[in-house]
Amino acid sequence: MTISLDHPLFLRIASDLADHGWSQQTIFLPDTLTQALAQECQARALAGALTPAATGRGANAQVREGIRGDAIQWLEPGQSEPTDRYLGIMDSLRRSLNQALYLGLEDFESHYACYPPGACYKRHLDRFNDDDRRSVSTVLYLNQAWSAEDGGQLRLYLPHERQHEVVPTGGALVVFLSDQIPHEVLPARRERLSLTGWFRRRGASPL
Ligand code: OGA
Ligand code: MN
Description:
By secondary structure, the chain is α+β, with helices and mostly antiparallel strands. The protein has a single domain (1-52, 64-133, 174-207), classed as q2cbj1_9rhob like domain (Jelly Rolls). 24% of the residues lie in helices and 29% in strands. The chain has three helices and eleven strands, in the order αβαββαββββββββ. The termini are far apart. Manganese (II) ion (MN) binds at residues 124, 126, 183.
């Protein structure tokens, strides 16, 4: 399925990013696809395919549950029909953002994430010290019928001491500039499922 790069949702995300550095879309994916992705995430979790997430990268990677308590599995193309549809949609969003904002986004990496009850991810930026390719972060939520009392909000730290909290309701997408918006995941009372991803630009290389 090809989606127009001028789809109104894509254009709204691009203009929000240009204006404020972040965007929240309440209904990004059709319910059927969100549910298929949620089922797959749960099946992978039950099969033990998700592993505790680390902070840092390469030799600096460390599992520190008090700082980051989710379990993840990276996506590969060709694993399942819903996953491939999601990757196709995100690739269209990538090309749409490049067209609208000249961001030079080259690829997309993404993983399933499952936060068990009580798990959190303390305030951080999605940019490694030794790798500045991650440019735009995306989080797609997969839990149906989430309410504010369930916790698990994504808190964005915005300029001028402002904060914005996103309730992680299934089908919603949050997009933000990876190096500019500090954020944290508050502990949830229920298992919290999502697909997190990053559009990356080309890394610096010598002439
Ligand atoms: C991350 C992250 C936010 C969320 O995985 O880096 O900040 O709402 N996730 O799951
Ligand atoms: Mn993050």
